[in-house]
Specification:
Elements: E1 2-6, E2 9-13, H1 19-25, E3 49-52, E4 59-60, E5 71-73, H2 77-92, H3 108-116, E6 133-136, E7 139-141, H4 151-160, E8 165-168, E9 175-178, H5 189-195, E10 201-202, E11 216-221, E12 230-236, E13 239-245, H6 258-261, H7 265-268, E14 276-277, E15 280-281, H8 284-297, E16 300-305, H9 311-321, E17 327-331, H10 336-339, H11 356-362, H12 369-379, E18 384-388, E19 401-406, H13 411-415, E20 418-421, E21 430-433, E22 439-442, H14 455-476
Parallel strand pairs: 1-5, 16-17, 16-18, 18-19, 19-20
Antiparallel strand pairs: 1-2, 3-4, 3-5, 6-7, 7-10, 8-9, 11-12, 12-13, 14-15, 14-20, 21-22
Helix pairs in contact: 2-3, 9-14
Length: about 475
Amino acid sequence: MVKIKIDGKEYEVNEKKNLIDAAKDVGVEIPYFCYHPALSIVGMCRMCLIEIEGNPKLQAACNTPVKEGLSIITQSARVKEAREGTMEFLLANHPLDCPVCDKAGECDLQDNAFSSGKSYSRFEFQKRNIPQEEIGDNLIINHNRCIICYRCVRFEEEKVGESNLGLFQRGYDSIIGLAKDKPITHNYQGALADICPVGALLNKKTLFKSRVWWYKTAKSICHGCSTGCNIETNVRDNKMYRYMVRENPELDMYFLCDKGRFDIDWLNENRLFSYHEKGVPSESIVVIPKILEEIKKASKIGIIGGAHESNENLSQILQEVKKWNKEVALEVRVSEGQYHPKQVDFLMTNDPHPNTRGALDLGFSYNGQLEGIISEFNSGKIDLLFILKEEIPSGLKGSGKIIVLHTNLTSSVKDADFAVPIKAFAEQSGSFTNKNGVRQYFELAMNPILGLPSSGEFFKRLSLELARKKEALVGNR
């Protein structure tokens, strides 16, 4: 930590941070466009200009090292005039698209225009008009809105490892465009639109879907893989519209891959809201008594899956099955990525589950692994198998009963002896443990339908029903 002065006041800040972030930590906002904490410094936008004591010229804050004794001025008349000039140049050709732009309400250009710009324009000439282009299978660029901050180009080169975008022409004619003949196809087109400070880069999947101020937001964790990216959910009318990055500098989380970002349709569509028996919709008062009878008759019970469930649900499941006085085999790993996890790219892993590590830490692992449970089910040693939000494994041929707990109508729901509807992770609060062993909490984002249990609540109900029947038998004697 070092001591610096900002506008005459002394503060203690972290010298390892960029000056913009260090100032923000003590409550001083320095406007910017091109700066991003996870990307290289280029100082292209000239929006973060400040005065440094002893230096006659204005300097870019993003490129100024934090050191002991540094004294800066962020609110002088000279600084304000420079920022006004920068905004005037940026807005000279920028269209007045706010009423129809998807970025409206979360646009840095809007914010900085209000805080640092002028209330009128002196530009009297015709603005340039370049047709927008589709530059990716899920990406559109509106050249008229682009302010040449270069964030998109840097992100691709420094994080994705590709060079699909580049800066072409000069001065008034400068544009960001495709550097190759082929459109962008990588897994981070959503991130490109996300880091764009204006509405120049847009995703086709979310275009014109909703205004951002209509969303109800909640802090959550991406369910797409074991990395556990921090996200903010955007919900409207109890429907999930999108995931947005929730920056977490401590864990170096600033981005989100497309696989996690856009995999949300299952939360809104094809949901399982009724109990099923042999693939036919039924009711809890019919299905649960039959499941209870199967538990009583079972000599050994298997439970597979669970890496989509929260630590809290898994803990409750463990707690409840211990009350049944049955031998139970638990195995969370049902895919290759859970046994041999690998990085697919700088963010995503090959394990498409958010809580494999949490389940393993709780003891959801079997000596014989998944193959051992399948073998014991086929031989009849395991005669009751619970499957937690996974497909029924291929190779199951035993005569035992299969009970699937799921959030959606899948083939496993139709093929199982019994199917139980459960809450999705977004319909409850809890925690996931990511690949590095960090336990991260998520909030309730969507309201579940009345009476829909979580996986943990369902197992608790089974225990209560078993105990009630046992008490009734004792009472009759």
